Amino acid sequence: MYEKLSKLFYKLDQAAYAAEYEKRFHSYGSYKTNLTIKGFRKGHVTNDEFELFYVNIPDLMHLNNEVLMNSSKIKSLVHLLPEFVIKPYFNKLIINEAQSNNEIEGVKSTKKELSEALKELEKSEPKDKKFIGLMKTYLHIEHIDPFEKLEHFRHLYDELVSEEISLNNKLDGKLFREGYVEINDGNQTTHIGVIGEDNIAVQLNELITYLRASKQPQLYQYMVAHYFYEYIHPFYDGNGRTGRLLVGSYLARYLEKYSAITFSYAINENKSTYYKALEEIPFPTNRGEMTFYLIDMLKLLSNGQKGIIEDLEINLMKLEKINSYLHNMESLSEEAKNVLYIIVTIHVFVSEDLQLTLQDVMTLSKLSRYKLGHIMNELQHAEFVELQSKNPKAYKVCDGCLEEMMSL
Predict the structure, then answer these.
(1) Domains 29-309 and 329-406 share a fold
(2) Cα–Cα nearest to 224, from 236, 210, 212
(3) Helix ranges, 14-131 (H)
């Protein structure tokens, strides 16, 4: 049984423990990172220094394969979605992810605020700037370039969180913080960031080198990079959000964007696991081993993927029943059936409480306002949709309609 070095420290004598560490660090299945950290114990940085490494044990290999298989499954399921629902569905996931990312850091945001920020992005000159950068970053997560310059880390910070940073946490260095920063869980200090902007720059450059030159398995590599970024803690505030987006951008290019944006959501559901995994690495008796941290991170990632797979599979089954219902219905015109199919599909994949404006339905159906007006009147008269507001006109599916469509 492969156990944590920090546990073996108490089970083995000193010589056997040292031999086990040497065996792991120099084994054929070991990957060294050339990234070094200082030890941390009882709220203080120790004099120990360790090179981060991990061993590609069977449990880790299995999780790596599981994540890849999940990603392939997600791609296949997304391919089955009607074209018009792909963007609204992804927007729903973005909103869930962004809210989770904020919640982890104690930043208050509602789904309505984040949804409004997405709508503002569609305007040439957005008026309300709150959360605009956050949503823009998520929306284009697979297009974020690899981090190859120090300025790239600062650019992510500026785009993502700078608008929400309090005055007492504003940066005092050229690109990063100059002063001291620590993380406290309410009872004790759990981490102290690298001290001094020059030292931060040196270690971020080491991270760039690792990401650029490493020939290690990509999923492991990206999770190692996430930890090392959080270890450096280049900013006074916003490190968690930028760090999770950093790893998300690499995951989006390597897997697909759906897997990438579930990472914060999965972490938010398992915060204790996430923080414990981060905090165990610099413990002196762990000696820089990341094997169990990687197992925890890939489990979180896989669980997030499984959530998306289940959501897609259930909703696609619902869609089959809706299709069958509409096919056999004779009381509506074909054009009204087509529009109802669009509206119901959006409600299934996004939210049953969602209100769609007439403009929303025009965009989705590609019909003129005049033509659509007649169709919506037909759907109202048949009691499939209800008018929720008159200015602007907004509709939702009538209560009980979805249940009726899926009960046959």
Answers:
(1) no
(2) 210
(3) 14-25, 58-79, 83-104, 111-121
**Separation of alpha carbons 182 and 236, rounded Å:** 9
Q: Residues 340, 344, 347, 353: is their CA dihedral positive or negative?
A: positive
Determine which one of 26, 62, 140, 233 is catalytic.
Answer: 233
Please name which of 388, 51, 374, 97 lies closest in space to residue 257, comparing C-alpha atoms. 97
User: Quick one: three-class SS letters along 217-250?
Assistant: CHHHHHHHHHHHHHHHCCCCCCHHHHHHHHHHHH
Question: For the chain, which residues make up each domain, given as ranges?
Answer: 29-309, 329-406
Measured in degrees and rounded to the nearest 5, phi and psi for residue 35 equal: -105, 125
Whole-angstrom Cα distance, residue 213 to residue 215? Answer: 6
Phi/psi at 3 (5° precision)? -115, 165
**What CATH number was assigned to the domain covering residues 329-406?**
1.10.10.10
For residue 131, which of 169, 101, 172, 167 has the smallest C-alpha distance?
101
- Note the pTM of the prediction, 2 decimals: 0.92
> Is residue 240 pLDDT above 80, yes or no?
yes
Annotated binding site: 237-244, 274-275
- d(CA 291, CA 310) in angstroms, rounded, equals 28
Among 40-44, 57-61, 284-288, the range scoring the smallest mean pLDDT is: 40-44
H or E element at residue 389: strand 385-390
Query: Which neighbouring-strand residues pair with 167?
Result: none
Nearest to 277 by CA among 231, 235, 340, 211: 231
**Distances from the Cα of 52 to the Cαs of 286, 290, 296, in angstroms?**
10, 7, 16
Determine how β-strand 393-397 pairs with β-strand 182-184: unpaired
Write out the binding residues for ATP: 237-244, 274-275
Please write the tens of the pLDDT for every residue from 123-141: 777 666 778 888 888 888 9
Active site residue 233: yes
Q: By the 8 A CB rule, do 332 and 378 touch?
A: yes
Within 10 angstroms of residue 357's Cβ, the number of other Cβ atoms is 14
Q: Which CATH class is domain 29-309?
A: mainly alpha
13-31 pLDDT per residue, tens = 999 999 999 999 999 999 9
Buried (b) or exposed (e) across 225-245, using 16+ Cβ within 10 A?
Answer: bbbbbbbbbbbbbbbbbbbbb
SS3 343: helix
On the question of pLDDT at 105 being above 80, the answer is no
